[in-house]
Design goal:
alpha+beta, Jelly Rolls, five-stranded antiparallel β-sheet, 33 helices, 9 strands, 62% helix, elongated
Length: 824
Amino acid sequence: MAELLQRIRGLGKKKDRNLNTSVYSVVSCSDLTPGSVEIWVDLPDEIKYDPLLAPFKQRYEQQHGKPDPIDEPNEGDKTIFDKRHDVEPKKEDVEPLKDATTRLMEPMLANDSDTKLKSAKRKRLDQALRTLKLTALVACWVLLTVSLLLNMERTATVLHTAIQGGEVKEYELPPSEDRVKVLVTLTGPFAQAASNESDNILQLWLHREVVDDQLAEFKQNSTKWKIRLQPEDLLDFSPSSTDSKMLILQDNSPILNNSKNRRNLTETEDLIQEEITRWNQIGINGTRITLCMSTSSVSTVPLTVSYQLNPIDPEDGIIYATILLITLYTLIIFEVVNRTIAALLSSSLAVAVLALAGERPTLSELVSWLDVETLLLLFSMMLLVAILAETGLFDYLAVLAFEVTGGRTWPLINVLCFFTAIFSTFLDNVTTVLLMTPVTIRLCEVTQLNPVPVLMSMVIFSNVGGAATPVGDPPNVIIATHPSIVKANINFTTFTMHMGVGILIVGVQTYFQLRYMFRDINKLRHSVPRDILELRQEIAVWRRAAASLSSYSRDEDIVRRALEKKVEKLNVALNRREAGGGASRTDPMFCSTLAQMKQKYRIRDKPLLVKSAICVSFVIIVFFLHAIPELQRLSLGWTALLGALLLLLLAERDDLEPILARVEWSTLLFFAALFVLMEALSKLGLISWIGSMTETLILQVGQESRLAVAIMLILWVSGIASAFVDNIPLSTMMVRVTAALADPAGLGLPLAPLAWALSFGACLGGNGTLIGASANVVCAGVAEQHGYRFTFVQFLKIGFPVMIGNLIVASLYLLFCHCFLQLH
């Protein structure tokens, strides 16, 4: 690649033939006067012998013959700097010179000493910071190790029972005189949130009473948890669903807070104090706490109950989760450690926090937190791309795109972003990025572009395009397959038609915003290309030559106008190359570069290319069939694995080490750590808190404004949150909030607008930060393997403003469609 770049830079040194055409139209025969020819003779050689001024040279040769070769300067022409080397300096002349030199060098030596001192201080500061960093990281490791050594793995108690109508079933829990918190998880024949076909209710609550003759009347109940059941005829053999809730018994004194006991006691301070003393004597063994269950159904209701005593307090959990999230972003933003190590450290600290809170997960539970489907898809597609790269296909496609676009910058970027967005609508955007990133990097290398901003633009369009269909982005898969969404008749066609129009508008806004952000074409380059620098230098030389001629005499004016016309032609060429980074198809330099690229970057292994095409075609066809609900038999991960396995068989490779070495293991490990961290944040209550706060804010506005407020809140909350937390668990939680808002028993808002708002927010919010979407992380990993690393801050500067623009356009689109036109 370096050799190719050198050849391209070498081609930039050649004169552009277009700049030297039509020379006789610049200088006419009437302009070739003896005076103008004499002025031409006095011009610098690099200008005098330019093809544009060839008529002057020809006229001079006709009159005086060929000009003499340039002679070396004679003795009289030597300057004082040349002559002083011919004379031996005298000693008395040298000594004062040395003294003067010493006086002049003293400040420089002092400055050099200051620089060395500052450098030493800088080294000491760097060493101190390094020591501080290592100390903090080791402290985190010690915290993790101690928390795992001192805390057992949490095991939830699982019970199976059945409740008949009219009875209250009780299960006794360990007694406690303090505040009691129990996290209860139920599995049974529960109705969906949006269903109102049944009036059968299941109720659960905590009950505490005093086992004492004098305080026997004291009873305390928690708030009742009510769950709607399936209709009577569906209770048997119905599909089960799972739900959980935390039940709380306050720790206030029963003597001072129970109205019945107050009526039985004498209202004197002494008697109250006596009863409190009696309560303390009874203590923990004198109380009985039970988990009570009842149902209004006349049939027997089977249940599976699991409970956990004293789980993490939601308020404390939110604080811990926020600290963990800030820790992750601090490590990544300031590049304290590698991105993958930062994710591993943050997820390990999350496990340590859970262990210290008494909720240490088991190893099998930790493994269940991994999204194996996503990891399998990534691994399989990485294998396919690694083998496909050996055929030379990506190099060939880069040359083809270079030829089609004429090597111009923005046409190249337009083609890349357009095809990326189109592919992402029907393929998973992670797959699209894995296929497009190698082509983009190669194309940027041959056109002397910086791949980092081009890759960021490409992955942004991947996230935008993936939001258009139910299969383009994982959040859309979660939303489209939710039972409430399916029951509302939001199918593949309905989803695509409504989201497609909005995404088309968002795509236009994204394109123009990126064009504005990269309006300076030099931001898309590593530095100013050599051919542009040479053009600028040549323009400066010709301008100086033209400025040295006055317009007082006709002869000088003739030559000056000829030079100015040359400057104009050079400026045209400079503007064309600065604006587009390329040249016309007839430009000799472009044709020569293209010919060399075609010669060097060809298909290297055609049989392997045919085999790879068969396997990739199989994967893509099955991916497209996955868009049809009736044909969703194979998941995306299984499809990619089958394609990779087939290609490994057809490739007949005995040694897999070179192929496995190209797999982005650090990216896969980063995703695994991120999945664990996000599930831990969910256990700590952060994600559910976001959903509950959204629902609370919607309930505080009037009925006539609730739809507009709900659309805006769901869109912006999911969008901003998706930029900083993984959008998969966020979408899983927010789709439940959306279904609850559409429940006729609650607010009864239309479901479709809320679903579109969630889809726009969860998908477009991924453009905000580097770890906001899976495609961003994959693209960064592939780019880093090719030697191009872009940081969190680099992506934030481009992606976050684009995300804000996307959400604004989506807001206007949704409000216009559902609040003004009421298309729902």
